[in-house]
Amino acid sequence: MTSTGHTTDADAPVLTLHDAAVAVGGRRLWSGVDLTVRPGEFVAVLGPNGVGKSTMIKVLLGALPVAAGSVSVLGQRPGAVGEEIGYLPQRRNFDGSLRIRGVDVVRLGLDGDRWGVPLPFSRRFSAARRAADERVREVIELVGASAYAHRPIGECSGGEQQRLLIAQALVRKPRLLLLDEPLDSLDLPNQAGIAALIHRICRQEGVAVVMVAHDVNPILSYLDRVVYIVSGGAASGPAAEVITTETLTRLYGTPVEVLRAADGRLVVVGGPEAPALHSDRHDDRHGDRHEVLR
Amino acid sequence: MNPGFTWNIITDVQWMWSVPSMVNAFRAGFAVALLAGVVGWFMVLRRQSFAGHSIAVTGFPGAAAAVYLGLSATLGYFGFCIGSALVIALLSRGSGTGVGERAHSSALIAVVQAFALALGAVFLSLYGGFLNSTSAFLFGNFLGITHEDVLTLIVVSLVVLLIMAALGRRLLFASIDPAVAAARGVPARALNILFLVLLGATVAEVSKFTGSLLVFALLVMPAATAQVLTARPALGLLITVTLGVLVTWLGLAWAFFGNQATGFTITSLAFGCYVLAYAAKSARRSFALKAA
Amino acid sequence: MFHDSYMLTALVAGTGIALACGLVGYFLVLRAQVFTGDALSHVAFTGALAALAFGIDLRVGLFAGCVLIAVLFGAMGPRGRADDVVIGNVFAWILGLGVFFMTLYTTNQSGSAGSGGNQTVNVLFGSILGISSGQAAAALGIGLGVSLVLLLIARPLLFATLDEAVAAARGVPVRLLGYVFLVLIGVTAGEASQAVGSMLLLGLFAAPAGTALLITDRPFVGLAVSAGLGVFDVWFGLAAASFVPNTPTSFWIMAVAAATYAVAVAISRIRASRQKTEKQSTKEQRAAAAAA
Questions:
Q1: How far is B175 from chain A (nearest CA, A)?
Q2: A24, A27, A95: best mutation site toward chain B, by most B Cβ within 10 Å?
Q3: Which domain holds residue B48?
Q4: How far is CA B222 from CA A250, B37, B266, C93, C145, in A?
Q5: E strand or H helix at B142, and its extent?
């Protein structure tokens, strides 16, 4: 699991998609996606529900092949450089009765894929172990979770858990962070807080962030670029160019209006919702229930 | 008594029903399947199969203890089953069906079950090892059923089924969506306690016929089959009960003519139905995918 | 106590088994797979009886049955973890099969009346005091082997349990680990059921692990505590059994395990209610300060 050598030109794009398309179960979800992400950029993936935004993350992780076009992640094919990518899947919620400390969950991001168990008392003897502990402490402080990292993660609130999970994704100093709707189940103040945190991480640590979102407003002021996907095509570019009446109407093929509220928020009016697919939107809990109750 | 099975169904059934204990067995089987089916359907819906099994298992030491103390086995069954149901219900947090509580509640259920069995081991050794009774306690005995047995069964069944009918809709609501139900004033936790007690009573009564280990089969299998086939409650309950009765009766007949244990015959038939239902559903789904 | 060599062999066997059960049990509870462990212990019963009925070595049936069904459970679930209902159905049927083999075996043994019954009791409740030194060595070896493998996969298994998608993205072979773990459960179930019996295996799986998860929130500390508690339960249980003769050893082991678990539950409840009152009082303080 070591990264193979590749040219580390500081400005080389972290991620390139060229005319990419994806198909699931024989059905083409989206196509014509062009995107280049440079180090330290903050990019959002937007689109109506069910269009396949999470599927894009799977493509970038190498879990799903592209049906057309090309994808290059950190100069290689997707899935080849797992440890330089931080990943935050959608809707993970640790329930209250799980008594594992937040700091241990973050630590798993560092060495969870190594075999064996950490030897007791090795802290005293191993510089590597001390360095690892220091890195964990450092990244927890970066996300602002130091106050509650030593509590069982199930006892933390949604926003607190999300910060700890972001720390887990960052602990190995990735160059690319993939976030799947991290603001999904958070209230507004927490959304603002996490959005600011992600922006700070982008700038401070130079990590490129690709974030799937269903509402662009909490992150609008931080974004460098957006990719807007609909079932017929996609458009990418600066937010001010993509989320406009003209572009969205062209994408959707029906009249869509983008309104700007007094406080700067964007509202999209008239966009048809793609039919939500039952199969790819559920965590297993709901999936099982729906199995029974279909 | 190893009756020959001619392929003339009518004479075979008449021959079988000329034996009074078999008639009682069929009557008891009907009531048992009905009771276990209804309660089991909710148990499967609420994902409380493990709790049901454990409560059933605790009946065994209860019966053994009661017999050792000179009391009736029924008392032992009821005492231990309802007792363990209460322990499990009161000590588990929340509504009992939440996803996350499962880790801790399953540990609790396991400890209750194992400890109860350990107690059973003590009574076994105190009593000097009486395997026949043990076998009956664990695996059941559909023969030798008296009229009193059938009467108690009918009474207990009526009581439990009436309470279930009264609670049915609220229990369904609380089972599917405890949070929303609680917001609407449905007391999910209290319902959980009540349901587990009813489950305990059901298990205790049915165990007298099927034994502590195999009562579980009648609780789970027809209900699981029904829930594979449909999600609609009324239809599901109907399928569960019909399947349960069919499987019990056919299992009794098979045991009678084939000289097998009823525990084996009934579970095999029930499992067969489950597998068929599962296969049918998978086949239907792959056809639907191909058509799309 | 150590004057009797049988106690020493029991201790040796018990320690190996306790270590494996404690370690495997920790992940069983964490992954909410306790029911799988329970089901496998009953499978052990059927496997052993099948072997006895066919006249082959008991242990072949035990291990073959446990490992096969463990892997089957993995294959039947979406992410290598079968649904509770599926487990329930399969193992209810296997219990039925067990009844079949039991009648087969006891009728074949009817010449030497009672020995068939004794064997069944042994299968159910174990006979740790009756094992030979060869068997004890095997138990220790297998127990240590399972423990070693588990320790080797502990960290990735923990990662896969808590953060499945992230672990998979990181290259952890989540499905494979799930299967390996199931095989470990099967092997442990097969070995331990000889000592404490298939019925009480569940207690050794659940109680030390449940206790550990309640008293600590550090995963690797919890793993160690679970293993340590398992060994403690077995030693203490054996010691207690030696002081009270003619009581089954498995009862004492289970009693100690259940008692420690009960204490842990009590402590965690007290702690939880104390946290609640603290939270309430800080809320009230804040409200008072805001009002002031």
A1: 11
A2: A95
A3: 9-291
A4: 55, 7, 11, 12, 41
A5: none
The 3-state secondary structure of chain A reads CCCCCCCCCCCCCCEEEEEEEEEECCEEEEEEEEEEECCCCEEEEECCCCCCHHHHHHHHHCCCCCCEEEEEECCECCCCCHHHEEEECCCCCCCCCCCCEHHHHHHHHHHCCCCCCCCCCHHHHCHHHHHHHHHHHHHHHHCCCCCCCCCEHHHCCHHHHHHHHHHHHHCCCCCEEEEECCCCCCCHHHHHHHHHHHHHHHHHHCCEEEEECCCCHHHHHHCCEEEEEECCEEEEECHHHHCCHHHHHHHHCCCCEEEECCCCCEEEECCCCCCCCCCCCCCHHHHHHHHHHC
* Interface list for B 263-292 with A (CB within 8 A): 289
- Best of B92, B99, B106, B230 to disrupt the A interface by mutation (most A CBs within 10 Å)? B99
- Between the alpha carbon of residue C112 and those of residues A82, B136, B218, C59, the distances in Å are 65, 21, 34, 22
How many structural domains comprise chain B? 1
- Residue B1 — pLDDT band, cuts 50, 70, 90? very low
Q: Taking Cα atoms as reference points, which of C62, C272, B53, B60 lies closest to residue A99?
A: C272
Residue boundaries of the structural domains of chain A? 15-94+173-293
Instruction: Let me know if residue B233 belongs to a domain.
Output: yes
For domain A15-94+173-293, give its CATH number from 3.40.50.720, 3.40.50.300, 3.90.230.10, 3.50.50.60. 3.40.50.300
- pTM greater than 0.90: no
Domain membership of residue B85 (yes or no) is yes
- Does residue C196 sit in helix, strand or coil? helix
User: Counting beta carbons within 10 angstroms of the beta carbon of residue C176, is it exposed (0 to 12), middle (13 to 18) or buried (19 or more)?
Assistant: middle
Predicted confidence band of residue C113 (pLDDT cuts 50, 70, 90): very low
Specify the CATH number for the domain of residue B105. Answer: 1.10.3470.10
Measured in degrees and rounded to the nearest 5, phi and psi for residue A33 equal -90, 120
pLDDT band at A282 (very low <50, low <70, confident <90, very high): very low
Residues of B in contact with A154 (CB under 8 A): 100
Residue for token digits 């106050």? A147
The nearest alpha carbon in chain A to C158 belongs to A112
pLDDT tens across C26-47, in order?
A: 999 988 889 888 888 778 878 8
Indicate yes or no: CB of C89 within 8 angstroms of CB of B274: yes
Structural domain boundaries in chain C: 5-291
* Residue found by looking up tokens 């969950």 in the block: A105
Q: Do B111 and C257 touch (CB under 8 A)?
A: yes
Residues of A in contact with B93 (CB under 8 A): 97
- Fold classification of C5-291 is ABC transporter involved in vitamin B12 uptake, BtuC (1.10.3470)
Chain C CB within 8 Å of residue B245 CB = no
CB neighbours of C55 closer than 8 A, spacing ≥ 6?
A: none
Q: What is the pLDDT of residue C80?
A: 63
State the average pLDDT over residues B183-211. 89
Q: What are the angstrom distances between the C-alpha of A66 and each of A274, C52, C190?
A: 21, 56, 46
Query: C35 at the B interface (CB within 8 A)?
Result: yes
Residue C129 near chain B (CB below 8 Å): no
Identity of the residue in C84, C103, C205 whose CB atom sits nearest the CB atom of B49: C84
DSSP-assigned beta bridge partners for residue A87:
A178
Is there a contact between C47 and C61 (Cβ–Cβ < 8 Å)? yes
**What integer best gives the mean pLDDT of chain B?**
85
Q: Is the pLDDT reported for residue C110 higher than 70?
A: no
CA Rg, chain A, in Å?
20
Residue A293 pLDDT: 32
